[in-house]
Amino acid sequence: MYKYDQYDQTIVDTRVEEFREQVARRLAGELSEDQFKPLRLMNGLYLQLHAYMLRVAIPYGTLDGRQMRMLAHIARTYDKGYGHFTTRQNIQYNWIELKDTPDILAELATVEMHAIQTSGNCIRNISSDQFAGAAADEVTDPRPWAELLRQWSTFHPEFSYLPRKFKICVIAADEDRAAMRLHDIGIQLTTNAAGEIGAAIYVGGGMGRTPMIAPLIKDFVPIDDLLSYVEACLRVYNRYGRRDNIYKARIKILIHEIGADEYRRQVEEEWAHVKTLGLDPPRAEFDRIAAMFAPPAFDAATPDTLDRSDPDFALWVDQNVKPHKQPGYAIATISLKPVGGIPGDATAEQIELMADLAERYSFDELRVTHAQNIVLPHVRKADLHALWQALDAAGLATPNLDLISDIIACPGLDYCSLANARSIPLAQKIATRFSSIERQRDLGELKLKISGCINACGHHHAGHIGILGVDRKGTENYQLLLGGSGAEDASLGKITGPGFDEDGIVDAIERTVETYRAVRTHGERFLDTYRRVGIEPFKEAIYG
Amino acid sequence: MDDLLRYRDDAPHEEPAVTLDAFLGQTNATAVRLESDEDARALLPHLDRLSLIEVSFPAFRDGRGYSSARILREAGYAGELRAQGDVLVDQIALMRRCGFDSFVPDKPLDPAAVERALGRYDAVYQKAADGRTPVWALRHG
Prior knowledge:
Distance between the termini of chain B: 43 Å
CATH architecture of the largest domain in chain A: 2-Layer Sandwich
Radius of gyration of chain B: 15 Å
Number of helices of chain B: 5
CATH class of the largest domain in chain A: Alpha Beta
Order of helices and strands of chain B: EEHEEHEHEHH
Low-confidence stretches of chain B: none
CATH topology of the largest domain in chain A: Sulfite Reductase Hemoprotein, domain 1
Number of domains of chain A: 4
Shape of chain B: globular
Oligomer: heterodimer
Mean pLDDT of chain B: 94
CATH architecture of chain B: 3-Layer(aba) Sandwich
Strand order of the largest sheet of chain B: 1-6-5-4-3-2
Number of domains of chain B: 1
Shape of chain A: globular
CATH class of chain B: Alpha Beta
Radius of gyration of chain A: 23 Å
């Protein structure tokens, strides 16, 4: 894991003091809310329906037990005893008081954490593959690249007032576990013919009200040129991205309007200039960062076998445990989606327990996933049963990873001032309807994603089944979308037809999955069936 | 010009800035005003005769001027580079990094607050137009 040096620590500490002054000016009445807004929005502080919400950055979703324990402490001391893990691999607290925020940030800084650029029209937290450093299919660990980008993007003088927010994702495997092509810039690390590692750059993806899958802009950028290339990508956007309409200001609209070829030409022209400026750090800096992501001291002698005699344990292993590149080890996902729970929420006690378990069983490492779950990336197979028992006792062993109840949901109208409809109660209702784990497993991989408004924070465009909450003449109405994917086979869901009320949408989902069961061929996932037969049989079942 | 903040040793430029169109159409102007949607690169062939370039910030959210400033400095422009408009105290440090060396904010700024903002961060992560040494260079001497 990355460790701050004196420079990183000083920058974060300075930010705390700067924000403390800004909050003091606001509390003293020297700043109006209008004047304070752009300042708090550079630091992850939103004013929601009922209170302030503070979003804390978890760079590329990686953290250690000490940091996780601090997140629990903040939940208990400054919030209502829980936190909400987000689709950007961050955590947010929904019941924060403004006067406490400087102290919260000061506490976070003691464990090398911050809330810098978790909101605002700037470069946001860099996201990555939650299995980085553990997956067998990666060409390298993407996190050193993500850390290099984190530092470069922190207080970037030219790109702090972009047309709109800007999200970057770095992965290093063909299997896309991080929705890379639905980012403003998606980076896939790859190797060239000479066997050197470089980056394929996709630009202009995103969800929101105009979803787009990012086109490939550059097939190979060497590590030594990465920052200058990304700088060129951003400069073209900062100069020519639309600023007349907030809904058309993301880079995807620029690229859609001028075309990927023209955007590529402009970036190449800019890059030819930018790369002469000496903006790229020396290779030694990349090596310094990469050394901190060296693999942990795996035990080569630990057995590669597993005692599956406990059926409940075996069920959890089958669903939530994935293969590790190191023999004798496994990747365990802790589901934050218990039936009837709030997707992504965890109590302070649960967060502390996960910190303990990471220290005991996973080389002191945890990951947050964009699907709002937690990963212990390096668990000895011999420890899996003990881990499972500890999780089970805390309500954290729901064996539903990637099943219909592993729902991504935005906070919705329960918290968010932008929402048109509630997301959380609907997620709870769906999970309850499909609570039988046998039925869920029979339905197989099924990614269900709910957004409470058109801004798509719940990734509904990328759901195998997506739900969009809208306001129809003053009542909540839910539209159903089918066929989306945020994975390497990225696609955007299609709306089936007229929307439903809260009970109607749950019935419509039931008819959808029963149609799938009726027409699927052996081993075919819901998404595969949908792609083979198209939307018509589903529409017929839902509306016919 | 009471509200001019200036970080240069030479005498302030007296000639009023003309629009980009006017500047490109005549040969003797030495000061030009660039609107946020105008291309700074149009000035590159003429930098040697310019003493003042004023870049407009119609709203603090409009960040195009940051790119304009860097483009001008990267091309070697050494004259006065002024940010005019909705310029706030919390933006001055970023603007200095992009190469601005004078400011005419719509609303006057508290000089003490400006000084604090400019002196706040000892270290920066990026190489920009202000010549500050980025952290990565300090780390590797």
